[in-house]
Amino acid sequence: MGLAAKLMIVKRSPIAGLGGFAAFDIKKGTRIIEYTGERISAKTAETRWTRNPRRMVLLFSVSSRTFIDAAVNGGPAKRINHSCQGNCEAQLTKRGRVFIVARRNIKAGEELTYDYHLELSPEDLARATELYPCHCGVPRCRGTLAALPRAARKHSITGAEEESIRARNVLAEIKLERV
């Protein structure tokens, strides 16, 4: 069992189903865990997304051609829930690996979260809060897992936050049935 597995435990979450929680205090910048699963093509990802509306689909965009589907051979990182003000972020390495990294110091027992910035079609984006509601409960919650266009956001974000959003890859974790 690697260091990452020791930093995170999985248990029932007040946000949704199961969640990842800090097993110990974690310092800002620490790589907590790698996001793993089956590496698939963009075409396969699209097929899984559209053909399995009732199945949990956990797709992480590594590039325009490659996705990681944590629903197939994925590790515990797939349990990290969304928050509009997450304490973690996803970082992509030059070798195409995805790590969940602490954005700030995190106390033992605190739930690990990050902003999924779910990318939706224009049709689905119009119904984002209905299709993919957010349950994070933070003061600046935008009400959805989706990455909203600037005009649709409940709260304005800074230029630095906007740049950070563009730099992150997308996690599309759809939990249609609560665990």
Description:
This protein is an alpha+beta fold and 179 residues long. The protein has a single domain, classed as Beta Complex (Beta-clip-like), CATH 2.170.270. Helices cover 18% and strands 27% of the residues. Strand 1 and strand 2 form a beta hairpin.
Largest sheet: 4 strands, mixed
The number of helices is 5
Q: Sum up the overall morphology in one term.
A: globular
Low-confidence stretches: 151-179
Overall number of structural domains: 1
Q: What's the architecture in CATH terms?
A: Beta Complex
Mean pLDDT: 77
Keywords for this entry:
single chain; 179 residues; alpha+beta; Beta-clip-like; four-stranded antiparallel β-sheet; 5 helices; disordered C terminus
Q: Gist?
A:
It contains five helices and eleven strands. The chain has 179 residues and is an alpha+beta fold.
Give the SSE layout:
Layout: H1 3-7, E1 8-12, E2 18-22, E3 31-35, E4 38-41, H2 42-51, E5 57-61, E6 66-69, E7 81-82, E8 88-92, E9 98-102, E10 111-114, H3 122-125, H4 128-131, H5 159-167, E11 171-174
Parallel strand pairs: 7-10
Antiparallel strand pairs: 1-2, 2-10, 3-9, 4-6, 5-6, 5-11, 8-9
